[in-house]
Amino acid sequence: MRSVCISLVAILGLAACDIQVEGPSGVSRPTEAPVSQSRTGGPQSLADFRAVVRQVEPVAERTCRELRPRANCDFRIFIDDREGLPPNAYQTLDENGRPLIGFTPALFAEMRNRDELAFALSHEAAHHIEGHIPQIQNSAAAGAILGTLIGSLAGLDQAGVETAQNIGGTIGARRYSKGFELEADSLGARIAQRSGYDPLRGVLYFARSADPGDRFLRTHPPNADRINTVRRAIGG
């Protein structure tokens, strides 16, 4: 949602009828049942998150199988509780290609209702369904190759060529990132709605967050574009 991370610590293993929290040691412990109502207007609890996951995760997996029948649609959703992490939600893949969605506890404190949690989760699931990670990797690789070629033609030394390669890879990786975010907003809105949540209410989280504007190499689009994308996706 805000960035893509790789390191994972506390895993929230999700099955169709059972949720367990798995600590760094790999030992699972049962969790309490979710509360029946969301705390509205204030920080959301872990119980709120669990309740949202129970509704959204099966819809996201079903949507994934419908749109990408050959993809791995077995989402694993977890809490990344490493100390000091900022508010964030992100999607990545494990070594076997299984889609992972991580939330930091600090994000719960910023969200005011389950609709916001549901939209964030649906948005991250949509990144996987849309195949954004391999597209970013391919674009980054192409950018790195171009940077290497330009550096070599310019007569740069080895260090200079490596710098040009890194710059090219960064530009390539970010070239389509704003479009990917809007694609994930659109599909995520539909997933959230199918899960019984209000994506128009959920996307209002962005109205309270810092607006990245429309700046070069920024990875996220302007907040107004995201809100309008959600409106169009659900006909609101």
UniProtKB/TrEMBL annotation:
GO cellular component terms, semicolon-separated:
membrane
Q: Which GO terms describe its molecular function?
A: metal ion binding; metalloendopeptidase activity
The Peptidase M48 domain covers 75-232
Q: Which cofactors, by name? A: Zn(2+)
How, per the record, is the cofactor bound?
Binds 1 zinc ion per subunit.
Q: Which PROSITE patterns match?
A: PROKAR_LIPOPROTEIN
Q: Kindly provide the name given to this protein in its UniProt entry.
A: Peptidase family M48
- GO biological processes: proteolysis involved in protein catabolic process
Gene3D superfamilies cross-referenced by the UniProt entry? Metalloproteases ('zincins'), catalytic domain (3.30.2010.10)
Q: What is the lineage of its organism?
A: Bacteria, Pseudomonadati, Pseudomonadota, Alphaproteobacteria, Rhodobacterales
Report which superkingdom the organism of origin falls in: Bacteria
Q: InterPro entries, per this entry? A: Mito/Outer_Membr_Metalloprot, Peptidase_M48
Q: Which Pfam family, just one, is annotated for this protein?
A: Peptidase_M48
Query: Carries keyword Transferase?
Result: no
The keyword Protease is annotated on this UniProt entry:
yes
- Organism for this UniProt entry: Boseongicola aestuarii
Recorded family membership: Belongs to the peptidase M48 family.
Q: What keywords are assigned to this protein?
A: Hydrolase, Metal-binding, Metalloprotease, Protease, Zinc
